[in-house]
Amino acid sequence: MDAEKQLPSCNAPNVDAYLTELGKKLAAKLPTGGVQYPFEFHCVNDKAINAFALPGGYVFVNRGAIEASDNEAQLAGVMAHELSHVALRHGTSEATKAQFAQTGVGILGAIFGGNAGGALLTELGRFSAGGVLLRYSRSAETQADVVGTQVLYDSGYDPRALAQFFEKIEAESKGQNPPEFFSDHPNPEHRVERVQEEIDKLGGLPRNVKRDSVEFEAIKREVLALPIVRKETLAAGRPTPSPSGPPSAPSAIYAEYLGSAFEMKYPDNWKKYGEKDSISFAPDGGLMEVGDGQAGMAYGVIVNVTKVEGGAGGEKALEKATQELIGTLQKGNPKMKIARQPGRVRLNGQLALSTYLSNESPAGGEETDWLITVIRPEGLVSFVCVAPQKDYEKYDQTFSAILDSVRFGK
Ligand SMILES: [Zn+2]
To answer: Rounded to the nearest whole angstrom, what is the distance from the C-alpha of residue 195 to the centroid of ligand 1?
Structure first.
């Protein structure tokens, strides 16, 4: 499925520029503990009241959130709340945090340029995109409210605006069809009271707080006039669930992928997801919903390039980096086991390690994950070939052909 239909850009440079200016102003007051996030802000042409942040600093604001804001302070409140989740490093598991940060660019490209499936590279066969990236806990919500309120306060905005906005959108829905925002950000108890407490701690409501701006009103008018993308094509940002039944057999004709670190071929009836250092290839029906709006790869190949500490080469470094990668994958996939310990092979003439892993398949039953790792100047290049155990034999040849086609740069 075309992800541009799932998460369409507003295609409104003014709006993105406005969100960026406002976002950076807020981010300047964010307690990041010295971490410099490369924040980017984008408007999504989706009427649902929502906004979401990818760890690593990509913030997406739905047009619906702009339209639902009565003033700039309320919009700033939603954005401050999202930024706080990033700064507080909420939501993603330890295993995925670093990977998300690393592959952020790939995800961005995947969402706006290619296909939502690109994000699946962040964890072996498991990903989610857009608003379904994660569901925060209520205590994380309260923390994001508290930090977000501080950010509003320090930026000169009415610090009550954050809680006011959430209260308003909840009241308007009257408990029916609650805004999409609440499906990812469960409403914490006593939200308004908690925010008021924080304002009191900060010394009470300052004088001359900013509530609105001419710019906000102009941007809101522009957003209201944007063409509407029909809701059924949005599918709430969720990746394509698989049609029933296994995917059709891999084509014997191969398409070519030219990356910066390597070239490779893949069956021409498979789709390419992601880009650059995070790319995967899967047949139609190779991605399956694994519940909770998440999708997993049941059939396909995932390729990742990850930086290696120290940049050392040699067999020792390859072994160490491979073990670390397996550890990371296992953290994100607790059921994953090593079925066959790493053994030496050659990939395009380079020393490589071949490891077999087993995991629960999104298609049901067990799956086999054949992992091949190589150290290159760009880092550890990993290929994970995924298929359910019962179908693995049918894919073995295809996987071998794909790996045989890999060519590294000079
Ligand atoms: Zn939240």
So the answer is: 14
E-strand spans in 33-130?
40-44, 51-54, 58-62, 126-127
CB within 8 Å of 176: residues ≥ 6 apart: none
- Strand partners for 275: 278
Enumerate residues with CB within 5 Å of ligand 1 (an ion). Answer: 136, 141, 144, 185
Q: List for the chain the helix, strand, coil content (%; round to 5).
A: 40, 25, 35
**36 phi/psi in degrees, rounded to 5:** -95, 105
pLDDT at 133 over 50: no
For the entire predicted model, the pTM comes to: 0.53
Give me ligand 1 centre to Cα 258, in Å. 39
How far, in Å, from the CA of 290 to the mean position of ligand 1? 23
Q: What is the pLDDT of residues 347-372, one digit of tens each?
A: 998 999 999 999 888 788 888 999 99
Residue 130 has pLDDT above 90, yes or no: no
